[in-house]
Write a structure and sequence with these properties.
The chain is mainly α. The chain folds into two domains: 63 residues, no CATH class; 232 residues, Orthogonal Bundle (MetI-like fold). It contains 14 helices and two strands. The chain has a two-stranded antiparallel sheet with strand order 1-2. Strand 1 and strand 2 form a beta hairpin. Helix 2 crosses helix 14, helix 5 runs antiparallel to helix 8 and helix 13 packs antiparallel against helix 14. The longest helix has 41 residues. The protein is flat. The N terminus is likely disordered.
């Protein structure tokens, strides 16, 4: 009796029948979908549907109030093969470079300089991060006063030094770079916060070992600190590029895409077709929106394929 019981205890219990297992799997799947349902609904409502609607509109013409009324296929995309649209893409490229490069480099220089400050470092970091608290509209209005052709603050400073006035927003050569300066100022605070957090995460032992080996000043910053900030720099470059490609508010407030289209980026061109001048040309605007999506995806893919290989993750 004892032996039989021992043998029975050794053997595993009989597995559940197939029908019972299927019921259990069905209940688990139902429970999983119940938990996923809110996220799936939000994804479908705010991503899948708008994207599908944009594709639909890009292949249709529309009436005077924007309702699609005829199928045009890929004609809206073919119409973009013009020098005018090439100029819009070139302006977008120049604006992106004019924002990302100075913005990232400027934030890096500020953070590295602040590392050498012993007293008041937190206060200075907060001061440099302050522009991040301004909205796009507020910052643009402030800079419109700086750039104003009649009573420009910047031109007043130049006049004090006996220099010629600069047509900041009324010259085709200067308008785009004036908007770039405004955008860099607005984004500088965010870059300082990201890189300051990255420097705070660098182990002190690394810098101490580098100083023992004789690395100080610029050499310490370039050979040790900057490589250790690789993940933060990579993140900042990607985010800054996406934000620059999607910039709209400062362009709309400062220049309205002018003068003579010199500040009309791809996003602003979409706005002009869809909403400006009462055109409601949602078909062409949607086609350009899809081009913008492709541009963002390609830029991000290139950055992940090229820059991420050089990032050192501790």
């Amino acid at each position: 009796m004892t032996s039989g019981t021992a043998v029975a205890d050794v053997h595993p219990q009989n597995p559940a029948p197939p029908r019972r297992r299927r019921r259990e799997r069905g209940r688990e799947a139902t429970l999983a979908w119940a938990f996923l349902a809110p996220s799936v609904a939000v994804f479908a409502l705010f991503l899948a549907y708008p994207l599908g609607r944009t594709v639909y509109l890009s292949m249709h013409g529309n009436d005077i109030i924007g309702r699609p009324n005829r199928f045009v296929g890929l004609s809206h995309f073919a119409e973009m093969a013009t020098p005018e649209f090439g100029g819009v893409l070139l302006t977008t490229l120049l604006f992106t470079l004019g924002v990302v490069v100075p913005g990232v480099v400027g934030a890096l220089v500020v953070v590295l300089l602040l590392e050498g400050v012993i007293r008041g470092q937190r206060l200075l970091r907060g001061a440099f991060a302050l522009p991040f608290a301004f909205s796009v509209a507020s910052a643009s209005v402030i800079f419109s006063v700086f750039y104003s052709p009649g009573n420009s603050v910047l031109n007043g400073i130049l006049y004090r030094f006996g220099l010629d006035q600069v047509p900041w927003l009324t010259s085709q050569e200067m308008a785009l770079w004036s908007v770039c300066i405004t955008t860099v100022w607005m984004n500088l605070g965010y870059g300082v916060l990201v890189l300051a957090a990255g420097i705070g995460s660098i182990p002190k032992e690394v810098n101490e070992a580098a100083r023992i080996d004789g690395a100080t000043g610029v050499r310490l910053a370039w050979d040790v600190t900057v490589p250790m900030l690789g993940p933060q720099l990579f993140f900042l470059i990607v985010i800054s590029t996406i934000n620059a490609l999607q910039s709209f508010g400062q362009i709309h407030i400062l220049t309205g895409g002018g003068p003579v289209g010199s500040t009309t980026t791809l996003v602003y061109s979409i706005y002009q077709y869809a909403f400006a001048y009462g055109t409601s040309d949602f078909g062409r605007a949607s086609a350009q929106a899809l081009v913008l999506l492709v541009v963002v995806l390609v830029c991000t893919a290139i950055q992940f394929g090229v820059l991420e290989r050089k990032v050192h993750y501790a």
